[in-house]
From TrEMBL:
Organism of this sequence: Salinicoccus roseus
Official protein name in the record: Histidine--tRNA ligase
GO biological process, one term: histidyl-tRNA aminoacylation
Localisation: Cytoplasm
EC number(s) per entry: 6.1.1.21
Cytoplasm as UniProt keyword: yes
Residues bound to L-histidine: E80, G81, T82, R112, Q126, E130, R257, Y261, Y262
Quaternary state and interactors: Homodimer.
Residue ranges constituting the Aminoacyl-transfer RNA synthetases class-II family profile domain according to the UniProt record: 20-324
Enzyme class, broadest EC rank: ligase
SUPFAM superfamilies: Class II aaRS ABD-related, Class II aaRS and biotin synthetases
Alphabetized CDD domains for the sequence: HisRS-like_core (cd00773), HisRS_anticodon (cd00859)
Length: 425
């Protein structure tokens, strides 16, 4: 038997309403913040991610689904959304769009070859936003406030927002040197990845999952002490404006982004709900002032975040929040014989065109079983069609909740659909 690939999942019909509910909410909130959807391909040139995500990252080193196409080009299923958006921005010269800054969002599957774990899939759906073309603490605050708005709109309470500033490129040069000086003498005690990172990307040592409890990580130099005046002022404006919005946060000096193109604001949202499991990061984001240039684009700056629906669902589950089940159908037609079945099919055909959601039995079950089926489908109304209804052309429309019935002519579609629409749940 052929099985589903490891680390992927089928979202079954009984569960899709949860996804649709979340997706609708995300589209709606993005709309409120005036972000427009952008759709980029599922695969891109591998080169885009090698350059745009960075050769020293886990994503590029270990997690990409890369393949050669029949034209011998190396392609990669997208592992993240920012590089494709930036590629599209550059290619479509969006710096010249009349609407500035360019505010976009995406909602799309991402692919990473990862070890399977709770909250970690090989195909997962990310929602992310990017605001490109402005560098201002207020837009950073907008991005963070949207993120909080999303999670709070579902009623989630156990949320912890961590933020940090990693300064501008000047601030970081001095900081990287301080980290090298700090870690170099004892680098043997660190994992093999960190032993490489000290040369390629010392900041990432602070971010290492294996070495996070090492004393030298705990008492490492703080980026804050290396921020220049400009970067400090930028960070203060971000925190002041978060305060003004009543958004609570904690500053985490070890929250870093290891790549050169990241600057200033970095943030992460965690769940501290009990029973969430080992992985508690819901969302990560930050400012990337060097990414566009790195991809041969204009000197524009951007900021964004990405979250996955899989982890949002885990957070909801951990806090016992249920997504409302969808309403049932408007009408179920029960049938007593083959002639009635054919007529029911015709009636359904007409009612559906009127926007009524309706169904019937196709399995020739007994009336009692059909009624059960109507109940299972949560039908607001039922009609029983038999010989006498076919003869008179009149049916009894029964409102299931109240038990009230009304005689209606089958030909009077207007009356039928009006009655259903007025009384339906
Ligand atoms: P992690 O440290 O958990 O591996 P990451 O730093 O790789 O996360 P990002 O690349 O910042 O994650 O992606 C943003 C968000 O996407 C994460 O905060 C998380 O919610 C989600 N995410 C990342 N990888 C996965 C995955 N394999 N399965 C489900 N969700 C994921
Ligand atoms: Mg990861």
């Amino acid at each position: 038997m052929i099985q589903i690939p490891r680390g992927t999942q089928d979202i079954l019909p009984k569960d899709t309403y949860k996804w649709q509910f979340i997706e609708d909410r995300l589209h709606e909130i993005a709309q409120n913040y005036n972000y427009k959807e952008i759709r980029t391909p599922v695969f891109e040139s591998t080169e885009l991610f090698v350059r745009g995500v960075g050769g020293s990252t886990d994503i590029v080193n270990k997690e990409m689904y890369t393949f050669m196409d029949k034209g011998d080009r190396s392609m990669t299923l997208k592992p993240e959304g920012t590089a494709p958006v930036v590629r599209s921005y550059i290619e479509n010269k969006m710096q010249h769009d009349v609407n500035q800054p360019v505010k976009v969002y995406y909602l799309a599957p991402m692919f990473r070859y990862e070890r399977r774990q709770k909250g970690r899939y090989r195909q997962f759906v990310q929602f992310g936003i990017e605001a490109i073309g402005v560098e201002d603490p207020l837009i950073d605050v907008e991005v963070i406030s949207m993120l909080m708005h999303i999670y709070q709109s579902f009623g989630l309470k156990n949320l912890k927002l961590y933020i940090n500033s990693i300064g501008d490129q000047d601030s970081r040069a001095a900081y990287n040197q301080a980290l090298v000086d700090h870690f170099r003498p004892s680098i043997d005690e660190f994992c093999s990845d960190c032993q490489t990172r000290i040369d390629t990307n010392p900041m990432r040592i602070l971010d290492c999952k294996k070495d996070r409890d090492h004393a030298l990580v705990q008492n490492a130099p703080r980026i804050y002490d290396y921020l220049n005046e400009e970067s400090k002022i930028y960070f203060e404006k971000v925190t002041e404006n978060l305060d003004a919005l009543g958004i609570s946060y904690e500053i985490d000096y070890n929250l870093v982004r290891g790549l050169d193109y990241y600057t200033h604001t970095a943030f992460e949202l965690m769940s501290d709900a009990e029973g969430f499991g080992a992985i508690t990061t819901l969302c990560g984001g930050g400012r990337y002032n060097g990414l566009l240039e790195l991809l041969d684009g204009p000197q524009e700056t951007g900021i964004g975040f990405a979250l996955s629906i899989e982890r949002l669902l885990l957070a909801l589950e951990a806090e016992g929040i249920e997504i409302p089940e969808p309403e049932g159908i408007d009408l179920y037609i029960c049938t007593l014989d083959a002639a009635a079945e054919a007529t029911a099919g015709q009636l359904l055909h007409k009612l559906r065109a009127e926007g009524i959601s309706c169904d019937m039995d196709y399995k020739h079950r007994k009336l009692k079983a059909q009624m059960k089926d109507a109940d299972r489908k949560d039908a607001a109304f039922t009609i029983v069609l038999g010989e006498s209804e076919l003869k008179t052309g009149e049916v009894e429309l029964k409102h299931m909740q109240s038990g009230e019935t009304k005689k209606v002519s089958m030909d009077d579609l207007k009356q039928l659909s009006t009655l259903i629409e007025e009384n339906g749940s």
